[in-house]
Design a protein that fits this description.
This protein is of the alpha+beta class and about 400 residues long. It contains 12 helices and 18 strands. Strand 9 (about 135-145) and strand 10 form a beta hairpin. Helix 9 runs antiparallel to helix 10. The protein starts with a strand and ends in a 6-residue tail after the last helix. The structure holds flavin-adenine dinucleotide. Flavin-adenine dinucleotide (FAD) binds near residues 14, 164 and 282.
């Protein structure tokens, strides 16, 4: 098989890239190791930045997002046993986030592509990259018991944090990673949200987040010990602790749990985002702690940038367009790390319950909400106001 762009990974990054390349008439193939049903069912992210929503509208994939997405024009910040509403829309001059599940976006992209007659090849295995020159490469993989070869001019790794492309690009180069001394336990449950807007809680015993997927489904997270296991947290223990951190006045009526997840909090940036005709986008290049909900948004920004680079290279003869992508993707990765770590640091209590550090956190939060300039700057980066390419 022969194509121009071989894409490894059919998560949101690979699917979006394929859709946009199709729109430009650049032929491409997506190879995905899981089944379509598995990819569509993966829950993960839920919040889209302002810039991501505007971009998805502009490229014509936002019909269901506009109909079903839940606008987040404000957010609640709870600390010192008091909840303060932060008016994101007013403080940013009209920008806000939208709750729309990653699985919904993934399904939208798959169905648009399937209708157009271009679907990923699912359930491939033993994927490996062969690069012979800057204009010639191949992806070798197994499917249905046989070995296959996809010859391509470019390879884009959209294969997430545990894929093969990141390892291929990083070989021999040190990578940057940081692991935090705590994790998140998360429940997806048929519990009505306590508010139409997200509530972030700083509590001396640990962070809590009440998020949602619909008016009837909540996504709730608690900071827990780094090495806790899912089986350490019964639903009863979760909701008792959640209610303690949210405050006694919160009326919580837990419904049945449909998914439980343990998230190890970490950040990672690949040693390089592009070398010759191989590049990465999305989680293959960077992962951030989920506190600021930036992962999927950074992935969308990577794709917007990369598609511009392909256009410049293939239609406008800009020979250094992919190198320029590598540099801007690296800058974006570190900016995303900075925003995510800032929010993580602000809202998580020290695992040893150190009273001195606790007072410092509370003072930071007081300073944030009492200074309009600081709050405006925080809201601008939280909603992801800056337009994508
Ligand atoms: C609990 C949680 C909550 C999150 N919340 C948010 C949020 O609210 N907002 C936000 O912006 N982000 C959030 N994120 C991050 C977000 O989910 C990721 O950034 C996003 O999934 C990245 O998409 P991706 O396509 O780059 O990677 P992935 O979604 O990981 O997709 C990679 C794909 O590549 C496939 N693959 C892997 N290896 C191979 C291989 N060798 N061959 C072929 N295919 C392969 C995988 O099966 C997968 O389908 C969250 C993440 C988690 C874990």
């Amino acid at each position: 098989m022969q194509t121009t762009v071989g894409i490894i990974g059919g998560g949101p990054t690979g699917l979006l890239l394929s859709y946009l390349l199709d729109g430009l008439g650049i032929d491409n193939e997506v190879l995905e190791r899981r089944s379509r049903a598995h990819v569509e069912a993966r829950v993960r992210a839920g919040q889209l930045d302002h810039a991501s929503v505007m971009y998805l509208r502009r490229i014509g994939v936002a019909a269901r997002l506009d109909a079903e997405g839940l606008p987040q024009k404000g957010m609640n910040l709870r600390f010192r046993d008091r909840t303060r509403r932060i008016d994101l829309e007013a403080l940013t001059g009209g920008a806000y986030c939208t709750i729309y599940g990653q699985s919904a976006l993934t399904k939208d992209l798959i169905s648009i592509q399937t209708e157009a007659g271009h679907s990923p090849t699912y359930e491939v295995s033993d994927v490996c990259l062969e690069v012979s020159s800057d204009t010639s490469a191949a992806i070798v993989y197994r499917k249905d018991g046989g070995e296959h070869r996809l010859n391509c001019r470019f390879i884009v790794g959209c294969d997430g944090a545990h894929g093969v492309t990141r390892a291929f690009l990083n070989s021999g180069t040190p990578q940057s990673a940081r692991h935090l001394p705590f994790s998140w336990i998360g429940l997806l449950s048929d519990t009505p949200p306590i508010s139409r807007e997200l509530t972030y809680v700083y509590h001396p015993e640990g962070f809590a987040l009440w998020s949602m997927r619909s008016p009837a489904v909540s996504r709730t997270y608690l900071q827990c010990a780094r090495d806790d296991r899912l089986e350490d947290w019964s639903d009863d223990r979760f909701w008792t602790e959640f209610s303690r951190r949210m405050g006694p006045e919160t009326d919580i009526r837990p419904g049945p749990t449909t998914e439980r997840v343990m998230v190890r909090m970490q950040g990672y940036v690949a040693a390089c985002m592009q070398r010759g005709n191989v590049m990465v986008a999305g989680d293959a290049g960077h992962i951030v702690p989920p506190s600021a909900a930036k992962g999927l948004n950074m992935a969308i920004a990577d794709v917007a940038d990369l598609v511009g680079a392909f256009k410049a290279l293939l239609f406008e003869d800009q020979g250094d367009a992919l190198e320029a992508y590598g540099r801007s993707a690296m800058r974006r990765a570190w900016l995303g790390q900075y925003l995510s770590w800032r929010m993580t640091d602000l809202l998580h209590s020290p695992p040893d319950g150190n009273p001195f550090e606790n007072e410092i956190k509370l003072t930071q939060l007081d300073a944030l909400v009492s200074c309009p300039g600081r709050l405006r700057e925080f809201c601008d980066s939280y909603v992801g106001k800056e337009a994508l390419a």
